[in-house]
Design goal:
The chain has 76 residues and is an all-alpha fold. 0% of the residues are buried. The protein has three helices and no strands. Helices cover 68% and strands 0% of the residues. Helix 1 crosses helix 2.
C-alpha cells in the first residue's frame, strides 16, 4: 500500500533532491526513510543491550538461572 503526502522543503534541499533523485523522488525518499528506520532500530537495540549489561540485578538473576540449566538432566 502507498500513501501520498505533501512536504515542504527549502530551496537548497529541493534542488539537492532533484539533483540526486532525478525523476523518482518518492523512491529516493522511501529509501532514505527505510535506512533511517534501520539506524533508529539499531541504536535502540544497542541502548537496550547496554542497559541490560549495566543492570546488576539482571546479571544476578541470570547467574541464579544458570545453576538450574541442568536440573533433572542426566550427564549421558
Amino acid at each position: 500500500m502507498t500513501h501520498r503526502t505533501t512536504i515542504t522543503l527549502d530551496d537548497e534541499a529541493y534542488l539537492f533532491l532533484n539533483d540526486i533523485a532525478g525523476d523518482n523522488r518518492s523512491a529516493y525518499i522511501n529509501e532514505l526513510l527505510k535506512q533511517e528506520r534501520k539506524n533508529f532500530l539499531k541504536q535502540a537495540l544497542i541502548k537496550a543491550n547496554q542497559e541490560e549489561a549495566d543492570d546488576l540485578g539482571y546479571k544476578e538473576e541470570l547467574k541464579a538461572w544458570e545453576n538450574t540449566l541442568s536440573d533433572g538432566l542426566s550427564n549421558d
